Amino acid sequence: MSESAGKALDLLFYLSRTEGEISLAKLSRDTGMNKATALRYLAVLESRGVAERRAGGWSLGLALYELGTRVPVRSLVVERVRPFVERLARETGESVNLACLAGGTAVYLDRAESDRSLMMRSAPGDRLPLHCTGVGKAILTLLSDDRIRAILGPGPLHRINDRTLTDPEDVIHEIERTREAGYALDREEYELGLTCMALPLGIADADFYGAMSVSGPTARMRDTIQRDGMLDSLKRATAGAQEALNQRLTKA
């Protein structure tokens, strides 16, 4: 085993023996690894989803939970939620996506389209920014402001187009408005001509933070009656999906 692999595993085993979130300073003292080296390895582990950086420090990531189960959490979520994704696409006639938090991004897990859906450039497996997508904003509503700041960093955030928010504090305010509104809205911030509404889905015990969204051409979304109808359908689908996930946990 290479020295680099050994050090990375040492950090993972250390995190597995500790409770809660561990600061870089404490991790460095306990392992004898200098901060710069530890941070370099932690960044690699974070990019693979096996470690996560939060407001209070570092902890194990969802990917390790998946490795420790016979059926990955994400596969279980897709299996349970897919009927609701497909039904929502049929009801709205638009594209529907299921996504979850993975490190500092949103990763698409599943999608369904209708005959009239506007073809999106994203696909299952793609990683997308949290600050300018509907699913990303919905996921962020499940997190504390401190954790959101830790994920976003000092900024400026990547600008996709002129509508994209690049100041982390502006994103924080946007998430506050999203919580008040009850749903997330991407106003062409990621893809011009496309508007997206999203609602969060979560499994706290599995550290799973996700969202379901419906996306369509902005011209159709501007129609109040159509938009409100899509939002009602999205709320029903998300409520059904969340109940299905909760039942899974109860039976587990």
How does this model look, in words?
The chain has ten helices and eight strands. The chain is of the alpha+beta class. The protein has two domains: 3-60, Winged helix-like DNA-binding domain superfamily/Winged helix DNA-binding domain (Arc Repressor Mutant, subunit A); 73-251, Beta-Lactamase (2-Layer Sandwich). A hairpin with a 2-residue loop joins strand 1 and strand 2 (57-60). Helix 1 packs across helix 3 (35-47) and helix 5 (73-92) runs antiparallel to helix 10 (224-251). The radius of gyration is 19 Å and the shape is globular.
Summarize the structure.
49% of the residues lie in helices and 20% in strands. The protein contains 10 helices and 8 strands.
Topology:
Blueprint: H1 3-17, H2 24-31, H3 35-47, E1 51-54, E2 57-60, H4 62-67, H5 73-92, E3 95-102, E4 105-112, E5 127-128, H6 134-140, H7 145-152, H8 168-181, E6 184-187, E7 194-203, E8 208-217, H9 218-221, H10 224-251
Antiparallel strand pairs: 1-2, 3-4, 3-8, 4-5, 6-7, 7-8
Helix pairs in contact: 1-3, 5-10
Q: Give the class-level CATH name of the largest domain.
A: Alpha Beta
The CATH architecture category of the largest domain equals 2-Layer Sandwich
Order of helices and strands: HHHEEHHEEEHHHEEEHH
Radius of gyration: 19 Å
Helix content: 40-55%
Strand order of the largest sheet: 5-4-3-8-7-6
Helix and strand content put the structural class at alpha+beta
Overall outline: globular
Which stretches of 5+ consecutive residues score pLDDT under 50?
A: none
Q: Can you say what the CATH homologous superfamily of the largest domain is?
A: GAF domain
CATH topology of the largest domain: Beta-Lactamase
Beta-strand content estimate: 15-25%
Q: Cα distance, first to last residue?
A: 37 Å
What's the average pLDDT? 86
Q: How is the main sheet built?
A: 6 strands, antiparallel
Helical element count?
Answer: 10
Instruction: Count all strands and give the number.
Output: 8
Number of domains: 2
